[in-house]
Amino acid sequence: MELKERMYHIGLSKKDIKNAKYAILPGDPGRVSKIAEELENSVPLAVNREYTSYLGQIYGENILVISTGMGGPSTAICIEELAQLGILYLIRVGTCGGMQLDVHAGDIVVASAAIRQEGTSKEYLPIEFPAVSDLKLTYALYETAIKINPRTHLGVVHCKDSFYGQHNPERMPVGYELENKWKAWIKGGALASEMETASLYTVASTLNLHATAILSVVWNQERENNGVENKTVQDTTQEIRIVIETLKTLISDSKE
Question: The domain containing residue 185 runs over which residues?
């Protein structure tokens, strides 16, 4: 696609992002300003549809913060347009529901890979191609995370399109398939479920970008179903701090 001066969906141009190479990607537009507060000299850029954006700095390096909205399609559009503007490094800052019994609300999950049970990634690469993070970026994130929250898990996450298909599979005509696959993902060791990471990793692979994701666990339906303690935690402060500290390390190392 021919590069336009201003991207149609995210509403940004190269002039706006000032040669930024790093982008922090929350799903929720309401979380963008909270992340931007942790940057130096942050300023709002654009609001269009689900895409709210700010630009700030870490050690003089420009950092873009932009929401992707919910699900794979809007995430893929955002990544495509960011790539055209020159962004190279993508860090998703999201939330998830735990799947393993030892994944508690308030824990952190760093996603090394994602199960592609969604539709967007299938329009990029065949299903046999894995949705895998950039391992160097992921390990840097994990190293920071375990220092800040010892209850950090590293591994595979599950990615779907239908939130209610996960939570109420029995009322879906294809519930038999949803329930059986859910059990399979758990047996395979999937840590948590969310809606964007598979698309992020697959599109990033296609466009030769570096991507990783950190997720804050909101609750765990498997703990609920098994009758064990299961609180709800909505606070994303810790994972934001982890991302900022990781970027400080990466940027500082790159300037040496």
Answer: 14-255
Long-range contacts of 42-47 (CB under 8 A, 24+ apart): 45/11, 45/12, 45/16, 45/17, 46/10, 46/11, 46/12, 46/16, 47/11
For residues 23 and 82, the answer to whether their CB atoms sit within 8 Å is yes
Query: Are the C-beta atoms of residues 69 and 30 closer than 8 Å to each other?
Result: no
- The token pair at 208 is 């030769």
Q: What is the mean pLDDT of each run of 10 residues along the chain (256 residues)?
A: 76 97 98 98 97 98 98 98 98 98 98 98 98 97 98 98 88 91 97 98 98 98 92 96 98 85
Q: Please count the structural domains in the chain.
A: 1
- The residue assigned the tokens 């149609």 is 8
Global pTM reads: 0.95
Within 10 A of 77 (CB to CB), how many other CB atoms are there? 22
CATH number at residue 238: 3.40.50.1580
